[in-house]
């Protein structure tokens, strides 16, 4: 569905955002009948509350949305979105109570509150529409909402309908929409040029491939690399059922970089963009790769396989090696890579790694400003020895289980040796339960922050 603000000429109800400690003050200047109506309703201004106020003829004349307290808003995001579903069908214009600095976030939250995954059942969400608040870049907010919706749709689609071919189809559709170029490497060429991508995906009936999309003819160079494991059984180190249940989302890194690419192209940023997605299914068959196999990567580094369920870093490594060969100004990898990251920061934060202090500061600041929270993790040098097994250059699954996200990030960094700036995001890409503006299911983590940081990082 399109994510658009209402036509500003459409008749609309004034909507007042009421803070919990500001209700009494707001009521003092209102008609007596409204004061009685609000008091009788029990409306208190808490986040998530909404109330329609009647006019003299009983028809809706205005509306209230609870905006809570500053402390309550700091404990979450998109406070206004919590009230949208309770407002019902109609068009609204914010009349008071919206801080200027929060207008873009709350407007984006309103649009995202309408998201529903409807491919198989159900219908689109709330019919409440919003006239864009004054002072925001409405077109940009709409682009962000549509980019997020693309990411969510891709993650939410089950593996039966989102294998390597379907992920390629989604990339091709995006390339066609924005006149980007796309190449796909598969078969013998993949086996020869990207041996670890081929090895991870060769046991599946759905052929592995590397998707390579390019857009833009001038400006600094940005390469996005997204993990596209469309389903992960764990391979011969088979996952238990409880751990396999959400593995349709193991291509969440690819979904996030495609959503980010959509936003970059729709905004027409003056840069040269490349998107690399190793698309595979990690399956079990007679030709599946095995524990203690030793693989030779595109970069020439050898990797001892100590767990076939640590496959994401293998496919990313070959793609990162290709990205590094062009030495772009910035490489960003995104992947649902480790359970260790979820244990460390939970599902709501996107951990990221970089050695570049200005890049780290720009990303962290943008995350806070864009309601897209990030948390910096360390490339901890003393752990380098953990990924060196002795029998090969690298170990894909160090024993002991400690620092799993850090050792995975260190593994990936070995494949980016020539490019000046690199950041890796170990994301979850999933909401375990519904939150304001975020339905249960697939979600973008990091793209808005990365997008907002690009002008500073790349000098746009």
From TrEMBL:
Q: Which GO terms describe its molecular function?
A: manganese ion binding; metalloaminopeptidase activity
Q: Which superkingdom heads the taxonomic lineage of this protein's source?
A: Bacteria
Which Gene3D superfamilies does the record cross-reference, listed alphabetically?
A: Leucine Aminopeptidase, subunit E, domain 1, Zn peptidases
Per UniProt, the keywords (alphabetical) are: Aminopeptidase, Hydrolase, Manganese, Protease
Q: Does the keyword Hydrolase apply?
A: yes
The UniProt entry, under CDD domains, shows: Peptidase_M17 (cd00433)
What Pfam families does the record point to? Peptidase_M17, Peptidase_M17_N_1
Cytosol aminopeptidase domain location is 307-314
Q: What InterPro entries would the database entry show?
A: Leucine_aapep/pepB (IPR011356), Macro_dom-like (IPR043472), Peptidase_M17_C (IPR000819), Peptidase_M17_N_1 (IPR048816)
One cellular component term from this protein's GO annotations in UniProt: cytoplasm
Q: Which GO terms describe its biological process?
A: proteolysis
Which family is this protein grouped under? Answer: Belongs to the peptidase M17 family.
Protein's name according to its UniProt entry: Cytosol aminopeptidase family protein
Q: Name the source organism.
A: Salipiger bermudensis (strain DSM 26914 / JCM 13377 / KCTC 12554 / HTCC2601)
């Amino acid at each position: 569905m399109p994510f658009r603000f209402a036509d500003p000429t459409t008749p609309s109800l004034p909507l007042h955002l009421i803070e919990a400690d500001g209700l009494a003050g707001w009521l003092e200047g209102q008609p007596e009948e409204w004061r009685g109506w609000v008091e009788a309703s029990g409306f208190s201004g808490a986040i998530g509350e909404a109330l329609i106020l009647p006019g003299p003829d009983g028809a809706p004349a205005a509306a209230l949305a609870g905006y809570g307290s500053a402390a309550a808003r700091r404990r979450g995001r998109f406070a206004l979105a919590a009230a949208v579903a309770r407002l019902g069908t109609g068009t609204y214009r914010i009349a008071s109570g919206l801080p200027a600095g929060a207008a873009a976030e709350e407007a984006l939250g309103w649009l995202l509150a309408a998201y529903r995954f409807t491919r198989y059942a159900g219908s689109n969400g709330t019919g409440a529409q919003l006239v864009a608040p004054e002072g925001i870049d409405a077109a940009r907010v709409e682009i962000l909402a549509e980019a997020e919706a693309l990411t969510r749709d891709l993650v939410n689609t089950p593996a039966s309908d989102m294998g390597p071919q379907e992920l390629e189809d989604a990339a091709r559709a995006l390339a066609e929409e924005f006149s980007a170029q796309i190449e796909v490497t598969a078969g013998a060429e993949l086996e020869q040029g990207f041996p670890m991508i081929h090895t991870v995906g060769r046991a599946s009936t759905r052929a592995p491939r590397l998707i390579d999309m390019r857009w833009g003819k001038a400006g600094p160079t940005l390469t996005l690399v997204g993990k596209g494991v469309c389903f992960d059984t764990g391979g011969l180190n088979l996952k238990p059922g409880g751990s396999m249940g959400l593995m349709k989302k193991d291509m969440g890194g690819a979904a996030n970089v495609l959503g980010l690419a959509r936003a970059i192209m729709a905004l027409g940023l003056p840069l040269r963009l490349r998107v690399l997605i190793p698309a595979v299914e990690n399956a079990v068959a007679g030709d599946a790769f095995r524990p203690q196999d030793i693989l030779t990567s595109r970069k020439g580094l050898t990797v001892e396989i100590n767990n076939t369920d640590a496959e994401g870093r293998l496919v990313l490594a070959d793609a990162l090696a290709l990205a590094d060969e062009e030495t772009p100004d910035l490489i960003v990898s995104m992947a649902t890579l480790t359970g260790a990251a979820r244990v460390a920061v939970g599902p709501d934060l996107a951990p990221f790694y970089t050695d570049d202090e200005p890049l780290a500061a720009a990303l962290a600041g943008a995350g806070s400003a864009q309601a897209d929270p990030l948390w910096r993790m360390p490339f901890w040098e003393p752990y380098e020895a953990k990924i060196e097994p002795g029998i090969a250059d690298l170990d894909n699954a160090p024993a002991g289980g400690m620092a799993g996200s850090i050792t995975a990030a260190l593994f990936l960094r070995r494949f980016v040796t020539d490019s000046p700036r690199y950041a890796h995001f170990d994301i979850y890409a999933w909401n375990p339960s519904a939150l304001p503006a975020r339905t249960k299911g697939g979600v973008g983590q990091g793209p808005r922050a990365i997008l907002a940081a690009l002008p500073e990082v790349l000098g746009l």
